[in-house]
């Protein structure tokens, strides 16, 4: 058996992030989604209609980048955008029925499988504790709660 690799905590987090990303991206590419699109669709599926700027902030995406991602999702009939009454600068975004079906039948199912693989051998209590730790780390690093 080889020597155990010693990794500082930041590299350990980075390696886990990349391992998860390397499972998610191909699974999403199989259903025609590019990086960034699944998290937008997931957020909308879980939270419903919201302003484009709120969506960008919630998903940690720059305003210029989110416009490009949303343009493609809109062209594919997965989201719809509309002006909010009284404020032409405020653009609301929501899933279409096609987008909702894609989320329920493909995205959610694939992500749940990847999460299940990642958390295999973790008890339910360990999973909940792990989630609390991640939320606390986020708050420590950003000063904001992770809702």
Can you describe this structure?
The chain is mainly alpha-helical. The chain has a domain at 34-111: Winged helix-like DNA-binding domain superfamily/Winged helix DNA-binding domain (Arc Repressor Mutant, subunit A). The chain is built from six helices and three strands, in the order H-H-E-H-H-E-E-H-H. It has a three-stranded antiparallel sheet. The longest helix is centred in the C-terminal third of the chain and has 22 residues, at 97-118. It starts with 8 loop residues before the first helix and ends in a 5-residue tail after the last helix.
List the helices and strands and how they pair.
Elements: H1 9-29, H2 37-47, E1 50-51, H3 52-58, H4 63-75, E2 79-84, E3 87-95, H5 97-118, H6 124-142
Antiparallel strand pairs: 1-3, 2-3
Query: Which structural class best describes the helix and strand composition?
Result: mainly alpha
CATH class of the domain at 34-111: Mainly Alpha
Provide the β-strand percentage band.
5-15%
| Radius of gyration over all CA atoms, rounded | 18 Å
Protein name: DNA-binding MarR family transcriptional regulator
GO molecular function: DNA binding; DNA-binding transcription factor activity
Domain HTH marR-type: 1-139
Keywords: DNA-binding, Transcription, Transcription regulation
Key descriptive features of the protein:
147 residues; mainly alpha; Arc Repressor Mutant, subunit A; 3-stranded antiparallel beta sheet; 6 helices; 3 strands; 63% helix; globular
């Amino acid at each position: 058996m080889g020597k155990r690799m010693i990794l500082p905590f930041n590299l350990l987090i980075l390696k886990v992030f990349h391992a998860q990303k390397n499972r998610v991206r191909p699974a999403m590419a199989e259903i025609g989604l590019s990086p960034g699109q699944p998290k937008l669709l997931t957020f909308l599926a879980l939270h419903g209609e919201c302003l484009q700027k709120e969506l960008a902030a919630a998903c940690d995406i720059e305003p210029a980048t989110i416009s490009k991602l949303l343009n493609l999702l809109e062209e594919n009939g997965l989201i719809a955008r509309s002006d909010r009454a009284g404020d032409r600068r405020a653009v609301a975004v929501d899933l279409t029925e096609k987008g909702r079906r894609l989320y329920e039948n493909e995205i959610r199912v694939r992500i749940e499988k990847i999460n299940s693989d990642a958390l295999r051998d973790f008890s339910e209590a360990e999973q909940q504790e792990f989630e609390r730790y991640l939320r606390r780390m986020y708050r420590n690093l950003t000063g904001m709660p992770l809702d």
